Structures are given as structure tokens and as C-alpha cells.
Amino acid sequence: NNIDISVVLPSASLNNGRVILLRVNNSSNSDITSVTAISGGGAVDNAGRTPNNKFLQYISDGTNWLLMNHR
């Protein structure tokens, strides 16, 4: 089954410098389609990200989640 996966990141301000890796098992037909932060958790940089990803890497700058890598 193809399942769309939505992810909610924790507060960027409470996780300054933390790196979060999101990965979908390669044998799965699922994709990460939505990444947001908890209410008041800062903005999530999704610039350049395609709607369907198997791998996303974010880092917190203490205010927002910045996209470092995706595929």
C-alpha cells in the first residue's frame, strides 16, 4: 500500500542544534508528504523539497527547522 506520511517536529527553540533524520524504508511505497512543527514550534523550511520524499534531514537553529538534505 502507498501511504502518505505526515511528520510533526518538536519545538525548534527547545532543540537548538539538533539534527533530525526522517527516512522511509526503501521497500515501502510510502512517501513523506508533509512536515510541520508543533504549534509555536517554529517554521519548517521545505524549500526545494518535492512532495514525495524518502529521506529528509533537518537542523534546528533555535528558532526554525532548516532543511539540510532531501531525496
Multimeric status of the protein: single chain
Q: How are strands sequenced across the largest beta sheet?
A: 2-4-5
Count of DSSP H/I helices: 0
Low-confidence regions: none
Mean pLDDT over all positions: 88
User: How many angstroms does the end-to-end distance come to?
Assistant: 21 Å
Q: Approximately how much helix is present in the residues?
A: under 10%
Overall shape: it is elongated
Please report which band the strand proportion falls in: under 5%, 5-15%, 15-25%, 25-35%, 35-45% or over 45%: 35-45%
Order of helices and strands: EEEEE
Number of strands: 5
Note the main sheet. 3 strands, antiparallel
Q: Nearest-angstrom radius of gyration?
A: 12 Å
Structural category? mainly beta
Give a structural overview:
The model has no long low-confidence stretch (mean pLDDT 88). A hairpin with a 4-residue loop joins β4 (55-60) and β5. The chain has strands at residues 4-9, 19-23, 31-37, 55-60, 65-70. The protein is built from no helices and 5 strands. 15% of the residues are buried. The strands form 2 sheets. Strands 2-4-5 form a 3-stranded antiparallel sheet, with no helix packed on it. The chain is 0% helix and 42% strand.
